[in-house]
Amino acid sequence: MKKFIAIFVLCFAALSFGAFAQIKVASNGYVGINQASPAYNLDWYGTGRFLSSYGSIIFDNSGFGGVATIRPLDDWNGTLGRSDKRFNMLYADHVIARDLEETSDETMKENIQTLNNSLEKIKKLRGIRYDLKKEYLKTNDPKSMAQFEEERKNEIGFLAQELKEVFPEIVFLDTTSNLYAVNYARLVPVLVEAIKDQQAQIEELKNSIEFIEQNCCNNNLKSASISTDVSPTLANNTASLDQNIPNPFSTETKINCFVPDQSGTAILYVYNMQGAQLQQHQISRSGKQTVIIKGNSLSPGIYLYTLVIDGREIDTKRMILTK
Asked: For the whole model, what pTM was predicted?
């Protein structure tokens, strides 16, 4: 008798749901909730809630733009996946979060190597500004289309195909869409090593400048024999030495100087940063003179040049030869 009553109740419930079109079970087994013709195993129209003892998951349209939304009932509640049960992929147009963390524990890694030549690789990159094509958004929703039209312009980033030529490790091909994607966060270690490379160059230049200040401006060049006595003819500052033009240079550079009348010997010396004399150029006339230094006569680097008149240093300046 009890079995008969149970069957009767189930039949009555099915007939009742069918009559009011609240729950519809189609002949193919699809179940519709507020859907008269379900197109999926479970076809549900309206809002909903999954309730557990530790919180609830809500399905409604209360999110940004009033579109379909999955959210927890309470703020700061709920988890998507677990540390041992993760989703494989997440596709989204916007991701807004207070904190984004990437698992990077040392125990997970092997074959660890320091990045090399990071600065040279960074110099090969091309940052661009662009507009996203309209056909990228595949929707007819007016709100989404209006929002996309406002946001698609004046973006900045890289072209994945160009980036792939320098850093293939951070560019990925999504085979489902046949589009390239970039993991921008993985550029951070490269930038760190590039800054360190650049800082090493800065320190080298600082040391070179300190050497110039200590060994040049105090008349302490190792290979130069220069008197510290200043004659009346030169004390009136009529003699001068100009900065070479161009500087830095690669092919040749011009050094202008002025030799006063009644001067004896005038020589322009060229030294390396260790103070060793590499060249000397005799200046046989007084007045404004020009000395031309050929780039192929020296190796790329930093050099000092000094104007000496009658055995006395007039001035010393620095020039840079590039490749």
From this structure: 0.55
Give the DSSP letter of residue 185: G
Phi/psi of residue 199, each to 5°? -65, -35
Check: CB of residue 280 under 8 Å from CB of residue 267.
yes
Token readout for 65 is 């733009």
Cα–Cα distances in angstroms (integers) from residue 113 to residues 103, 110, 284, in the given order: 18, 9, 60
277 neighbors 311 (Cβ within 8 angstroms) = no
Structure-token pair, residue 208: 């070179």
Name the H helices within the chain.
2-20, 118-122, 142-151, 160-166, 187-215, 232-235
Query: In this structure, are residues 112 and 141 in contact, taking their beta carbons and an 8 Å threshold?
Result: no
Q: Give Cβ neighbours of residue 155 (< 8 Å, ≥ 6 apart).
A: 129, 130, 131, 132
Q: Which residue has the tokens 């519809």?
A: 24
* pLDDT tens per residue, range 312-321: 889 999 999 9
Band (125; pLDDT cuts 50, 70, 90): very high
246 prior amide bond cis, ω within 30: yes
Q: Which of 307, 315, 305, 263 is nearest to 285 (CA)?
A: 263
233 φ/ψ angles, rounded to the nearest 5 degrees? -65, -40
